[in-house]
## 1
Amino acid sequence: MEEILKMFRENFPYVSREAETLAEVIGHEGNLFFMKRNLEGRLIGCAIVNGHTILLLVVDKDYRGQGIGEGLLRECEETIGKNGFEKVVLGVGFDYLMPGVPTSKRWAPSVHEHLDPMVNTIASDFFEHRGYEHAWGACNCFDMRMRLEDFCQNDHQIGDNIDDILYRWAVDSDLNEICLCADDACQYQDESFSKYYRNADLYIEDSHQRVLVAEKQGRIVGTLIVSIETEGKDTGNVGCTCVATAETHQGIATKMVMLGTRYLKDIGLKYANLSYTYSNLDKMYGASGYEISTYYFMGVKML
């Protein structure tokens, strides 16, 4: 576990993911591991398969170009095929370490882009040359980040009533209505965000993760999770943005992100991230100053 976590952090320092979540995914009982070590016994390559998903395939940079990655991929594909699956998915399975393969390549136009200098197309090219295709078509998947010293949307804060909508911290009695809002917002997607809102710790006042809601005429119409240093020191996160279908296109999501981000800045954090989002939302998050830091190749291959 510690070896793999160390290798992950060293090779993907720009990927924003909670340490606890990484440990849970790596330690899942359904995982199959493929390891390569050097003569001294140090781990230099690793792949993790769960079902038909390759959760991780990584080779330390000093050992790339020697066929290690290709060998690991071959083992993964052979195992997935022998276990009765007809396709291989890169990234997201029962959960994920990364949404897909980090890359600087985009599949659709985007705005507010400032890629991490470590990101390139080497990994996505590796998979594309071996038969994998981007499963999202003409749609990007990406992470975004910002330096909070650059945040300048300071006209409002949490607790304000803006255009007859109250933006406030949620309490535990809001949970049912929050889940209804999240389910409504995600009704046309593959999964709902409501499962992320059911954690009771989100409704404790001094928690490192809290729920910001938008309340209109006594009804919750928007939700956002705001996190403090769950993915690293001096770093905050916003995510799981939901707005009730009937209340979209009113700027509610943009306001929640701005208010949540201002809170992160006000408490003294230096950076803010958001993860695993997609085309067109770069405009909404970009209004608060977030910029795309890495794209993901959402690879899939039929066996």
## 2
Amino acid sequence: MEKWTQDQYEQTLARKKQEAHDAMQLYILVNAKDLQDECEPGVKNLSAACKAMLNQMLEGDGFEVEPKVRSRIAGKLTVRYYVDNLDPSRRTYAEVNQ
């Protein structure tokens, strides 16, 4: 069984965000370890999950838990994604915080 790609994780996050938006939620919290366990139970692929989470952040999204050291604590990464405005023209978190 092949590990998920970063793109597969990004697609899953985009779907989760859209579902929350459709349910009229303001935001969702996503934890890297929980996301990996949901998508790939028993597989170690935190790098792809974390990169996808960071790449899916838009202006206004924020960190609930932002590990300062990579590696073993990467699973603690938790992001608050605001889903009230999913307009594709929104700037990414990286663009805003360069």
## 3
Amino acid sequence: MNEIKKIQYYLIFTFLCFLFITPVQGQDLKAEVILTWSTDTYAPLNYSGKVLPSPGSIIEVVADIIPKSINPQELNYRWFLNRNLEKNASGLGKETFKFTSDEIVGGIYSIRLEVINQAGLIIASASQEIKTIKPEIVLETKALLLDSSKYLVLANQETVFKIQPYFFNVKTLAELNYQWILNGIKALQISKNNPNIFTIKTGQLTQMIEQELKISVESDKNIFQKAQTTAELIFMP
């Protein structure tokens, strides 16, 4: 009789263990996905901020699966752009999604990703919004800044002005066209090696003179990518 009770207790214990262990083993492994994006626009080497896309930029979104123990090549990736399924970009092991922004400044792109395991279940999802901006240019000079965009230029000196472009779809500065206009006259003697630099040689002055410096920059590959800025120069004797 005691042996029968022992067997019964053993069967009950085994059954309880099965109840606790089996559901855990049968659960679907959950994961987390983090989306990171980058673009191909230009920024100076010393720029530490986020490089932003402009009209016509190539944008790349990469999915990073956590935990690392999950093999990303065994997962199916379903990419959506502005709620539309991107069939060619979706599929097994396709953890990277590339697309080209259109020519609209300020366009917002909504990206969504669903990660699916081999059983056909969604184990993770994430979304990201990316906005395009207009390319920018920044005027740099050692001339004294008087107020806002007003600079002091002294007599009998060389004053150097430099343009730094941001977020154009170019690899080098040589792919951009620069136009420097001082007091309504286009500067012709610009260095071919450094077209983003303009030097003013000031001689003897008898009185204060105010002139406007206007700079425009345009991509030679994309006419929609252009930017301009102005500065007021105060020439002092």
## 4
Amino acid sequence: MKKNVILFSGVIILFMFATLSAQSCDILYFCERYDTEMGEVNAGDRFYSGNLTVMTLLAAPVYYTKIYIQLDKYNPRNGEFEYYSDVEFTVEPDMDYMYFNDVYFGEKGFYRVFMLDPTKNNIVSAIVEII
């Protein structure tokens, strides 16, 4: 009985550490829109073409006042992602949770989406499918 309690406690502790480390990294994700009262509306990784909202949650404040959201579209002919477009946004340096409305995904396909600093270095990225 004592072994089971110790084993069970160990599993719970491991689960707690795994959960903490999984939440301590930067993430970028997508939703149809962001509402100040409801939050993210219809978050996912597969959408119809048009405008989407790009969301970011960073482990630390962004530090910059200007960032870029860059889209690279997958080209199945050569098997590579190619530059598609970018949009500049103004942010507050102390922000760690941000949303960027009306990012246009005009064509079907897979997009690699980057949040870039003012010198175009990657902060965080993710992939989304447009159908």
